[in-house]
TrEMBL record:
Protein name: Signal peptidase I
Organism, as annotated: Streptomyces tsukubensis
InterPro entries named among the record's database cross-references: RmlC-like_jellyroll, RmlC_Cupin_sf
Lineage: superkingdom: Bacteria
Amino acid sequence: MNDSVYVGNAGKDAALDRGWLLGHFKDPSDPRHSEDVEIKWGVHPPGDERRQWVKGEARTALLVLISGRFRVELPGRSVLLERQGDYVVWGRGVDHSWIAEEESVVLTVRWPSVSGYRIPDVDAGQSA
């Protein structure tokens, strides 16, 4: 086996790390470690929402709807993703939040990969 290759399943692997498949938070010896980009396979039950707005965003983000109905809240604008493949991109400095209006699967790509945005765990290890 080559240590620079990883083969997995997004659904299974995402469940192990709050949805995150790739980014700075993976062990440096893991081929999924990256300081350049973060990728998340987000599986959200209806009503799941980010408990706090991201403020002072230092990354650019792309969010693509795989299935469901997902709303992204941006300053002065609400974006509804409702058809497979609908997506939204926002740049550095754009605050945001989100809510799953239906059970939803979304793919998020953010760059660069930087720490400081995680909401502390609440209620038996749950976090947004």
